[in-house]
């Protein structure tokens, strides 16, 4: 049975329907990301779960108990925000113990729990510091410890890594996930960063204009996007227009050649999606070779992103950097190999 249940949540501000028929079942111990562009309603969903916003309609329950209209302090939820929301005038230890103090727990219990939490985040030595004496990454770890100290039923994280440097962000991703697994705490993580969502989550909810477009494991979201929006928002996607030659078998004309998709298609034209990393230089071992002319060579380090012109349509492809290979030159004519199965049909 689902541990955290959101059913048909709606939130309207004035005439603005910000969250639309949003339903989600989260298992105990699961790590779920809400992924979507700025303004799509992620924070509003989180605030409804926390009790800072009352849904216009719909229901929320945690561990079988309905909490839809309970105040935040009547729910057992921990929350971490993007900006370091630590109390500046309290020490690290006092920040971490804050929730327990509000609950009126005995001093000895608070001290023991604070020590346990500081050990968990690897900051046992810094309990007496003040927030301004910590790095951004350390402050977010303290915010996490503060949220977890009262043993919440659900942990909510609203873009907690967005304000940090790239390197710190990546290491904190792993650290947050390790702590979440160790405690087995049911977690909803909000982000607009697809790499964060894909790398951290058991399941990802891709949101778009207040709607959950797709809910699935990272692999599924990336490889089998359910909508055109998901296909283009998560990862990079080439879109190619093809002419349908045989609708029943899915034979299409693309870039001067014919490809058999083995899928029924509508008559006329279709829009196909293709990830840059699914395309190779040369046709070795692949179903299909398209002919293209290189128009762009972008050296990104580990990867070299090439662009090729296929008779009027542009196709991006990635090659791994290697000492054995020289990238093609601008204007060079190349064969671009791909598998028919990697072509997504994303529109008619
Ligand atoms: P996200 O977190 O995905 O960036 P939000 O949930 O913060 O999106 O906001 C979704 C939409 O709801 C935005 O258009 C935002 O302006 C609007 N919104 C959020 N909170 C309020 C509010 N308290 N009053 C009016 N509009 C709001
Ligand atoms: Mg937000």
Automatic annotation (TrEMBL):
Matches recorded under SUPFAM superfamilies: MOP-like, P-loop containing nucleoside triphosphate hydrolases
Span of domain ABC transporter: 4-234
Pfam families according to UniProt: ABC_tran, TOBE_2
Coiled-coil spans in chain: none
SMART domains named among the record's database cross-references: AAA
Alphabetized GO MF terms: ATP binding; ATP hydrolysis activity; transmembrane transporter activity
GO BP terms: quaternary ammonium group transport
Stated name of the protein: Spermidine/putrescine ABC transporter ATP-binding protein
Keyword set, alphabetical order: ATP-binding, Nucleotide-binding, Transport
One GO cellular component term: ATP-binding cassette (ABC) transporter complex
Domain of life according to the entry: Bacteria
């Amino acid at each position: 049975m689902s541990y955290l249940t959101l059913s048909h949540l709606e939130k309207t501000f004035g005439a603005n329907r910000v969250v639309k028929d949003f339903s989600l079942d989260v298992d105990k111990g699961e790590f779920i990301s809400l992924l979507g562009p700025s303004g799509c309603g992620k924070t509003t969903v989180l605030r409804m779960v926390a009790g800072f916003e009352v849904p216009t309609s719909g229901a929320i329950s945690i561990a079988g108990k309905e909490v839809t209209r309970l105040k935040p302090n009547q729910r057992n939820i921990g929350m971490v925000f993007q900006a370091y929301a630590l109390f500046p005038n309290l020490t690290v230890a006092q920040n971490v113990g804050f929730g327990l103090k509000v609950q009126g727990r005995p001093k000895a219990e608070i001290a023991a729990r604070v020590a346990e939490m500081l050990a968990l985040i690897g900051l046992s030595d810094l309990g007496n510091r003040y927030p301004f004496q910590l790095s951004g990454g350390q402050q977010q770890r303290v915010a996490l410890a503060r949220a977890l100290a009262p043993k919440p039923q659900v942990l909510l994280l609203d873009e907690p890594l967005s304000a940090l440097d790239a390197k710190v962000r990546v290491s904190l991703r792993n650290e947050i996930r390790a702590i979440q697994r160790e405690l087995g705490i049911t977690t909803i993580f909000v982000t607009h960063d697809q790499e964060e969502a894909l790398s951290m989550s058991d399941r990802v909810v891709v949101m778009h204009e207040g709607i959950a477009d797709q809910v699935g494991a990272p692999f599924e979201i990336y490889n089998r996007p359910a909508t055109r929006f998901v296909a283009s928002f998560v990862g990079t996607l080439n879109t190619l227009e093809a002419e349908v030659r045989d609708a029943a078998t899915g034979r299409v004309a693309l870039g001067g050649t014919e490809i058999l998709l083995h899928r029924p298609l509508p008559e006329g034209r279709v829009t196909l999606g293709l990830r840059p990393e699914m395309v190779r230089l040369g046709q070795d071992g692949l179903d299909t070779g398209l002919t293209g002319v290189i128009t762009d060579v972008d050296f990104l380090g580990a990867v070299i992103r090439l662009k090729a012109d296929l008779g009027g349509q542009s196709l991006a492809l990635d090659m791994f950097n290697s000492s054995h290979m020289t990238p093609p030159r601008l204007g060079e004519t190349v064969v671009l190999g791909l598998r028919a199965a990697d072509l997504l049909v994303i529109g008619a």
